[in-house]
Design brief:
about 625 residues; alpha/beta; Rossmann fold; 2 domains; 6-stranded mixed beta sheet; 22 helices; elongated; ATP-binding; ABC transporter domain-containing protein; ABC-type transporter activity; transmembrane; ABC_transporter-like_ATP-bd
Length: about 625
């Protein structure tokens, strides 16, 4: 075990809860349905407690209440939580505890050491020096036996990384960066084989015993050896306590109640089956079995002894439980968090091909297709429509293909939700870093696409024309990605977000002014959608860029006169000014600055709406 002196708990001797009850409204009957009913327990420094019970017994709900997490929507929680026998304030609990989710909140494209280093940068205050942060990370790498994997990637669907048990150890180690005194684990062995589960709990136990920490863990059905490593057990059945006490007394308790555990059977397996009422044949049998299970416990001497322990602990409480953490500032500064998130996002982006690599390949494929379909168009009247079609296709489909960002954003959002639940940062830091990280990649995509399309298709051949084209496409992509962020924040389900974003892009294509000229649009579509359609401003800007200062040749008719489709004094010279085409759409030059401002406002609104959704939603 590595030395990690900062982790050692010197202040908290006990953590207890009394009368924890949670109810939720039944959607059909609208009556209060109990999830937890008057649950109590106590853990002392250096102890590991297992919360067990069948599925739906309230394990995760209890863990969330104890960790001061927001209960499920519509749930009402009532609880008394104590530190050193004195009521624990929510802020104090946030400072001295940490929560490890059942699902690992890890970025697969980071190495183990990088994962812990970013956890330190996101959670530790500026009073902790860079040297001390590194020392903490290295100590945890040693403590959790991760030296051999320190420079190995955690792992992505494309690139294999560390094992499941090692991932769980990394998740626990990342939470211990802040030197918490109480560690909450939500089914840390879920999805692991018995050997990996034993390995994870063994490392947690070693750290807890060495540094005097308190560990409260929900666990489904551990092996005999894993179960024996816990000091205490809280057994739940339909939200009621079926046993609460030392693990070593489980066998004698069930023996004394007339339900002996078979000699060669896993005790954890037996007691889970004992309190499981899911397979009872009728409602009456469920009630009888539940009464037998919980009634046996309530009438036992161990139950009375536990209540006496809790009462004594409260009566002899520490008079100053709020002085539980030496750090006045908890958590990193907002600016430092944003810088750390941007740094992490850049690493993720260039290592994870899904994030931007596939998108760049898609856009380059589109560029080659466009450049060869609209190949070397000459500046003639016959190609006016072809130029217009190319402008529409380039802007609209560049925007449409932003749906490829949905999977990467869903992954980023999932990590954010878990890190936010642990109190690391909020939606502002997340969205600011997300936006700033995307800008250089979107600019690279725009330039690469434009270099191929613009010159192959023979658009207005000046540097000013090229960079104006790049500017409009760049703003187009930023707006499209901002729309993806907003929609995917509202519906964080891949298929639904994909369908909703595709529908929105189809709507913008219809109302942008290419399919139907703006003046001819139905008033409903024009006034409700056209003026808030970012694609309409991009299309008009790119049209003005191409046609406002360029002339096109007219063919000669059979009579030897120039046959020009648009009447203009230049017809006598066999030319058509591009402004003649712009007039048919109602477009005028000189609105570039205004339209840039409108596009920036639309982008800001999408990002603000995305922020509001993330601020309101907790799941």
């Amino acid at each position: 075990m590595g030395d990690y002196a900062q982790l050692t708990n010197h202040n908290i001797r006990s953590f207890l809860w009394r009368g924890v009850s949670v109810t939720v409204k039944d959607r059909q009957t609208h009556e209060d349905k109990p999830i937890l009913n008057n649950v109590s327990g106590i853990v002392y420094a250096g102890e590991l407690m297992a919360i067990m019970g069948p599925s739906g017994s309230g394990k995760s709900t209890l863990l969330n209440v104890l960790a001061n997490r927001v209960p499920a929507k519509g749930a009402y929680a009532q609880s008394d939580v104590f530190l050193n026998g004195r009521p624990a304030e929510a802020e104090t609990m946030r400072k001295i505890s940490c929560y490890v989710e059942q699902e690992d909140a890890l970025v697969g494209s980071l190495t183990v050491r990088e994962t812990l280093m970013f956890a330190a940068r996101l959670s530790l205050p500026k009073s902790i020096s860079a040297k001390e942060r590194i020392a903490r990370v290295e100590a945890l790498v040693n403590s959790f036996g991760l030296n051999g994997q320190a420079n190995t990637l955690v792992g992505t669907p494309i690139r294999k990384g560390i094992s499941g048990g090692q991932k769980r150890r990394v998740s626990v180690a990342a939470q211990l960066i802040t030197s918490p005194k109480i560690l909450f684990l939500d089914e840390p062995t879920s999805g692991l084989d018995s050997a990996a589960a034993f390995e994870v709990i063994s490392f947690v136990k070693d750290v807890a015993k060495k540094h005097n920490l308190m560990v409260v863990s929900s666990i489904h059905q551990p092996s005999t050896s894993t179960f024996a490593m816990f000091d205490k057990l809280l057994l739940l059945s339909h939200g009621n306590t079926a046993y609460s006490g030392p693990v070593k007394d489980v066998q004698s308790f069930f023996d004394s109640c007339g339900f002996p555990i078979p000699l060669y059977m896993n005790p954890a397996e037996f007691i889970i089956d004992f309190v499981n009422t899911d397979f009872a044949r009728n409602r009456g049998e469920v009630v009888n079995q539940l009464e037998m299970v919980t009634g046996t416990w309530q009438r036992s001497g161990l139950h009375a002894e536990k209540l006496n322990h809790i009462a004594r602990e409260i009566s002899h409480g520490d008079p100053s439980p709020h002085e539980t953490n030496n750090n006045e500032q908890i958590g990193a500064h907002w600016f430092a968090i944003v810088i750390a998130l941007i740094h992490r996002n850049f690493i993720k982006s260039y290592r994870d091909i899904i994030a931007y690599g596939i998108r760049i390949a898609m856009y380059m494929g589109l560029a080659v297709m466009m450049g060869t379909v609209w190949l070397r168009l000459d500046a003639s009247q016959e190609n006016l429509q072809a130029f217009t079609n190319a402008i529409f296709f380039g802007g609209a489909f560049m925007s449409f293909m932003a749906v490829a960002y949905i999977p990467a954003y869903l992954e980023d959002r999932a990590i954010f939700m878990k890190e936010r639940a642990n109190g690391l940062y909020g939606p502002t830091s997340f969205l600011v870093s997300n936006f700033l990280t995307g800008l250089p990649y979107l600019f690279i995509i725009t330039v690469l696409f434009s270099v191929v399309v613009y010159w192959l298709s023979n658009f207005r051949g000046t540097a000013g024309g090229f960079w104006t084209w790049v500017m409009w496409l760049f703003l187009d992509l930023i707006a499209a990605e901002s729309l993806v962020v907003f929609i995917t924040s509202v519906v964080p389900i891949f298929v639904v977000a994909l369908a909703a974003t595709a529908f929105a892009n189809g709507l913008w294509m219809c109302t942008m002014g290419f399919m139907v000229r703006p003046a001819d649009l139905n008033p409903f579509w024009r006034y409700v959608f056209h003026y808030i359609d970012y694609q309409s401003y991009v299309f008009e800007g790119m049209m003005v860029n191409e046609f406002a200062s360029r002339t096109y040749t007219c063919p000669k008719g059979v009579d030897g006169q120039f046959d020009c489709a648009y009447k203009d004094p230049l017809n006598a010279q066999g030319l058509i000014p591009g402004t003649a085409l712009l007039d048919t759409y109602g477009y005028k030059a000189g609105k570039t600055g205004q339209y840039i401002g409108i596009l920036l406002a639309i982008i800001l609104v999408y990002r603000a709406l995305g922020w509001f959704v993330l601020y309101v939603r907790r799941t």
